[in-house]
Amino acid sequence: MGHSGTERARAERRATPLAGFTVAVTADRRAEDLLALLRRRGARVLHGPAMRTVPLEDDAELRTVTEDLIAHPPHVAIATTAVGLRGWFAAAEGWGLGVGLAEALRGARLLARGPKVKGALRAAGLTEEWSPASESMAEVLDHLRTFDLRGARVAVQVHGDPLHDFRAALTEAGAEVLAVPVYRWLPPEDPAPLDRLTDAVLAGTVDALPFTSAPAALALIARAQTRGLRDRLLAVLRESVLVACVGPVTAAPLQALGIPTATPDRFRLAPLVDLLCHDLPTRRPVLSVNGHLVTLRDDVALVDGEPRPLPPASAALLRRLADHPGRVVPRTELLRALPGPGSDPHAVDSAISRLRTALGTPGLVQTVVKRGYRLALEP
User: Fold this and answer.
1) Distance in angstroms (rounded) separating the CA atoms of residues 328 and 91
2) Can you tell me the distance from the alpha carbon of 274 to that of 271, in angstroms, rounded to the nearest whole number?
3) pTM exceeds 0.70
4) What is the pLDDT along the chain (379 residues), one digit of tens a residue?
5) How far is residue 208's CA from residue 282's CA, in Å, rounded to a whole number?
6) Which end of the chain has fewer beta carbons closer than 10 Å to its terminal beta carbon, N or C?
7) Chain-centre distance of CA 230, in angstroms?
8) Nearest Cα to 285, choosing from 277, 300, 296?
């Protein structure tokens, strides 16, 4: 390979840091954006939507709330998501209520949860009075507590998560709270893809679960409870899967269940994927084998950073050898590691031969006569 070919190979490795990793996605809204980002980084992706979104223009409950809000404008209005706000205005325009909605909100003290929703408000000709630095509803609540809310009518845009605690705190402060269900989520019409995703997590074949909303995470766990799998799923999420959340609002209910979460510095899809690209490779040990660096990722081995796809039997043998780095693993134990039933020790020799071919680098797997095989591990 010439110089340009070497540089091209290095660029490809940098572009696919998730090669050999399996990432499970439960998102419905904007799922295709997240799936595309993950696939471009080399990940194998499982998709099982945990919920479905009710189309806004068909949502009779939202129309009723919008008419009520126009008839009785709020003193304070809290906008929580940009896509929800834009969709609300689009639906209101379709119902002939767009001008009335804008006027009702223009007379209110407007709070925006984050910069994206600030942009959506301004695109609608509205200006927010205040927005938290953290994009946290807890900080919004702290700010509202500086108001005298007794008798105030407060409209809260809810975003799938009904924000029960947030609304209850406002009610306790004396406010009349109007929840605006800008988009509502229901269980998926077909739960089979979500069940397959859950089964893969329980089988240990999923490396990461990125969540873009708290309701999706809770819906995954609720579905597992329906199937009698909740405790098993929580144990796996606590111990062996990288659970990544787009922001602290999404992470909060998972953390309350004792599930460790990782969150990017910027609460967006691209930084969420960047976090996986950084954190997932660090969870797999790098072995120094006969002068080469070897990492196993599911059915891909990285040899000095070069991805080497492995057949299932080869991946199973390399995994077993890597479980005992440098030690001799007997043929009988390697035979048990091979997929499917079998009792012929020669099947191990054939599979080792295919593994060596797939690795493409001689000297990584050593034969120890009459005993078995070992990785040529260096101290």
Assistant:
1) 67
2) 5
3) no
4) 444 445 544 444 455 788 888 999 998 877 888 999 999 998 989 999 999 877 777 788 899 999 999 999 999 999 998 888 998 999 999 999 999 999 999 999 999 999 989 999 999 999 999 999 888 889 999 999 999 999 999 999 987 667 888 999 999 999 999 999 887 778 999 999 999 999 999 988 899 999 998 889 999 999 999 999 999 999 999 998 999 999 887 898 999 999 999 999 887 889 999 999 999 888 877 888 888 988 887 778 888 888 888 888 888 888 888 888 888 999 888 888 888 776 677 888 888 999 999 998 999 999 998 889 999 986 5
5) 13
6) C
7) 18
8) 296
Q: Could you tell me the two tokens for 154?
A: 């407060």
